[in-house]
Amino acid sequence: MLLLEDIKPGNFLVSSTGRVLIADLAMSFIMPEGGIVEDIGKFGTPPFMVPEVALGKPFDGAKCDFWASIITLYSLITGLPYLYRSPRPDDILFRYCIMARGLSRDRHNELVKEIVEGVDNTEDIFMLNTVSQQITSMRTDLLELFENSLSLNPEQRWGREEAAQCRWMKG
Questions:
Q1: Is 106 a catalytic residue?
Q2: CA distance linking residue 123 with residue 127, whole number of Å
Q3: Residue 44 region, left (φ>0) first, then alpha (ψ -120 to 50), else beta?
Q4: Across-strand partners of 29?
Q5: Which of 6, 60, 65, 91 is catalytic?
Q6: Residue 81 in contact with residue 87, Cβ under 8 Å?
Q7: Helix (H, G, I), strand (E, B), or coil: what is residue 169?
Q8: Nearest to 105, CA basis, from 36, 166, 43, 24
Q9: Hey, is 59 helix, strand or coil?
Q10: How far is Cα 76 from Cα 109, in angstroms, rounded to an integer?
């Protein structure tokens, strides 16, 4: 099985017959036995990376690809270039959307309030406002897919099998 570390909208091509193809396979490699990747170095596109890759931690290759696919889906649905700039706590959008679960069906939790109240940079306020408006207009079944597929905890994170069973995928 290949690990396609750089899944993002810019790496998809559509043929004249409508077939979708993945391009830019320079970062692909064969996953190790068991699917857990110990160390690949730092490469890929930060707005589509799982946090484990950015932090240099071991990660599940299949779930890494699935994460990037879900971020790509978010980008295609919203028309925004990314959900966050970097999967790190110093990125305000990552803190809001992933760490504070701003993509959840319950966006009014204490972490979200704390993050929003602490923002004073005009660009960050604009980006947070834009992202939160997009999220607010999403259907709850789509939010369920995002919330569970983009969980900060890799053990709780959905993969393709779980996502295939969600209401949005079936509906």
A1: no
A2: 6
A3: left
A4: 3
A5: 6
A6: no
A7: helix
A8: 166
A9: strand
A10: 27
